[in-house]
Design goal:
alpha+beta, 31% strand
Length: 212
């Protein structure tokens, strides 16, 4: 006894899809020959976009690493801690052309200091500031500039250029009151030794009083 006759089916493999045909050569539903593999295309495109984004990130990182880093600050003098200095510096690896900085409100300074000249030079623009270079102007004695109590906040705005064109404008605040009460002893120099020698020399011969 034999069962009912079933149609013979053949299977042919075409890449990642199978095509089913019966004995008469007619295609069955589900035959995908010639169609693209959509999931594969999706992941390929996503991988390509991720690689493109990573390349752009690496390009920006290399660009940022080659930019100058220009700053302005008020710091105690390294050789004579009582004095305060206005300092313009470049901590980046490349030259910074056309550096301009404004400070609002204007920093206080003693008339006998270089403060007025320093503020004028910053406002007029510095032609070029090399990597690791600093420009320093004394603005006076700290105990005179910090006589008034309370915050002394000044807004610094810096514009400069780098090897790839204009740098983003930098704006930040400095508070001179932060310097109040800090240690004013100079470090790493012979200031006090020189001062002691001058005192001894002046005591020996007061008629030839020396100041430096």
């Amino acid at each position: 006894m034999t069962g009912p006759l079933l149609p013979q089916v053949g299977v042919w493999s075409f890449g990642s899809a199978d095509c089913f045909r019966d004995r008469r050569g007619r295609g069955r539903a589900g035959c995908h020959r010639g169609r693209p593999h959509l999931p594969g295309l999706f992941y390929t495109r996503r991988a390509a976009n991720a690689a493109k984004a990573q390349t752009e990130i690496q390009r920006e990182l290399r660009k940022d690493a080659a930019q100058p880093y220009v700053w302005v600050d008020v710091r105690p003098d390294e050789a004579q801690g009582t004095l305060l200095n206005l300092v313009l510096g470049n901590s980046g690896p490349t030259f910074a052309p056309n550096v301009r900085a404004t400070i609002e409100p204007e920093l206080p300074y003693e008339e006998s200091s270089c403060g007025a000249d320093g503020l004028r030079r910053l406002g007029d623009s510095i032609a070029t500031l090399g990597p690791g270079h600093k420009l320093i102007w004394s603005i006076g004695r700290g105990f005179e500039l910090l006589k008034s109590e309370g915050p002394q906040i000044h807004t610094v705005t810096i514009d400069a250029e780098g090897p790839f064109g204009s740098l983003p404008q930098m704006v930040y605040e400095i508070n001179l009151d932060d310097v109040r009460g800090t240690r004013d002893a100079p470090e790493g120099n012979l200031y006090y030794v020189r001062k002691a020698v001058l005192e001894v020399a002046n005591a020996i011969d007061p008629s030839k009083k020396r100041t430096c």
